[in-house]
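Entry 14. Ran structure prediction on the chain below.
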Amino acid sequence: MTGAAAARVASATLVLVSVAAVVVAGAGRVAAVTGAPRPYACSPGLRAPGAVGRPDAVSASIGDTRVTLAARSGGGLAHVLTDERVVVRTPFATLVRPLPRVVAYLLTLGSQVCLVAGPPAPSVIVLAYSGGAHCCFSALGFAATAAGLARPLARVDLADGATLGVANGRVVVRAAQGAFAYTFDDYAQSAEPIVLEAFDGRAFVEVTRDHPGLVRGDARTWDRLFARDPSDLSYLAAWVADESLLGRGALAWRRVDALEAASRLRGTVGYPSGRGFARRLRLLLGALGYPSG
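Output, structure tokens:
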């Protein structure tokens, strides 16, 4: 397994359900994650393969708030789940939310649920393998009302390797830039630069540039891997992307130009090399909104 492949986790779907304002009808209270000793907790993965209709449920708790992901096996080789629902239990209420059809068909074996204490507000994150050959993830945000968990507020699609982490005291979703897959090498070998997403209770916001320390660490990884295997230009491409976010794009492109002049931009057969690599990378970075170098 390459360094890039090792950096990935099983493909998943992220469903974020805000429980920041769970108002209990008639009680006039707001439920919150209290006594939280850590910013988030995640359950083990759903098992759920086997006979059609077999039930399973996994839970995660922080303080006096507990969230459960429940489902039944739909059978089949992909271990697709059915009857998926999120249950949020607080000292004041128990809320049940069936997952919407757009997400439900993606949930398969290994799905997890995570409870996030915030900031900015408590939320629930369901990590679920999409069942695709390689990927993917999506993130859905839900508001909470007295009647339960309302329609999705926001959605962001993430390609690869999504995990939870804490950056500057805030829980973020760390993923990878899927547009790099198949662009400079085959999928298994493709390096994909870091992407960080945060849910602010209303929408998902990309916050990658707000965390230069994580970007620097990602850049060092790709630089090290390229030094070991200079024939995989996807490592170089991911490094240039990270360096661009760090404001060092001009220096990164000087390195690319020097490698091209020395005829050392020789990538995997069938993928861009030489001047074609540099041209393709500039177009890709521009299309994705990376700073120009």
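The chain has two domains: 7-162, 177-293. Will compare against last week's run tomorrow.
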